[in-house]
Amino acid sequence: MKITDVKLVFAKHYLFVHVYTDEGIVGLGEAGNWGYLMATAAAIEKFKEYLIGKDPFKIEDFNQNFYRSVYFRGSVVMSAISAIDIALWDIKGKALGVPVYELLGGLTRDKVRVYASPMVRDKDPEQLAKRYIDLKKQGFTAAKIFVNGNDKSLKEGHDEYFSGRIEMELEKVKICREAVGYDFDFILEAHRGMTLPEAVAFGRAVEPYRPMVLEDPVTPDNYDTMAEVASKIGVPIATGERFTSLREFEVLMSRHAAQYVRPDVCAIGGITTAKKVAAIAEAHDVLVIPHNPLGPVSTAACLQICASIPNLGIQELPGFCLNGQEDAMVKEPLKFKDGYLEIPSKPGIGVELSENASELYSLHERGSNSAKRYFDGSVKDM
Q1: Is there a catalytic annotation at residue 291?
Q2: Which one of 52, 195, 222, 254 is most buried, by most CB atoms within 10 A?
């Protein structure tokens, strides 16, 4: 079998890739760099020149080649590698007639628990409570709560002062906990939006509400800062969603800076590298919560990893696809029931793009070049 072509598909704020072979098998992948789709597409086009005529089964070799052939790396290159890698695993599974998880060691579970990741932030207490009650009625047993402040100051900066900020975020968690009770887990998404003092103060104060995770309390660029937060609070930390190197995860875990790691299969180097991250995490007694803010291909690829590792924490289900908003993007949507996603049993990653996905979901990139800012005009971290 040989690779004959590589084609890109843009839909919504997603970039998909099809890898074609001379035996009629087509692999499907997705890139993770949603803020720079065109740059990532250009990288994939450059990889295409190398791939044509090659054996699609040499997945590890391709991964190593593209990572190490030129000294430029970073999110654009790694997202391009990821998209190709996922598509090649899809081809291999289809060619051998098995789901990808069978090639990764086989099933370690029968279904995958997921948490809802709503992208809307309710400022009204009643609406906030209602949103999480509704998620519980839909069958979810866990959900994300944004605790990364307001896009714009609501009280001329008072809600961004140290005490006001902590109190505002605590109140959100309190409202949600009272709404759904304690048979429901919370992933608190700080989105790298707290200082070290804020993260420690909030992490200690929020402990009575028993959150499952405090995600990215501070920027992950300084491992020692994250480790200091982890050592001073009783809430488990999760981080790693914007890492683009296997070695970043190893350093993070060697510092005991997180109890959960968040590899993004569409940004870290595909299924190949994400599985390695999970193995390193297992050796450090760390659980895995795959980052998944993207489309159905990302979700399907995540499920292959979740299905085959022993140290899964939970899986993110992005708010973009809640209530069937993206079901038409694929020929047969993944199935959610009672807080879990079913693991697809079809060969490959288990999903296929609809032929008219680009028409149904017109292209528009997420993000902008304008940073969010504090009340005093200084830049907030994204």
Answers
A1: yes
A2: 195
**231 CB-near residues (< 8 Å, 6+ apart):** 256
Among 198, 207, 190, 196, which residue's Cα sits nearest to residue 241?
Answer: 190
Q: What is the pLDDT of residues 26-58, one digit of tens each?
A: 999 999 988 899 999 999 999 999 999 999 999
- The catalytic position among 191, 256, 284, 364 is 191
Catalytic residue (choose from 18, 256, 291, 364): 291
CATH number at residue 239: 3.20.20.120
Annotated active-site residue 364? The verdict is no
Does 110 fall in a domain?
Answer: yes
Query: With contact defined as beta carbons under 8 Å apart, do 23 and 31 qualify?
Result: no
Nearest to 291 by CA among 308, 268, 275: 268
* Mean of per-residue pLDDT scores for the chain: 94
Mean of pLDDT values over 347-361:
96
State which of 81, 98, 115 marks the end of a domain: 98
Among candidate residues 71, 98, 125, the one where a domain is terminated: 98
Domain span at residue 148 reads 102-348
CA distance 120 to 18: 32
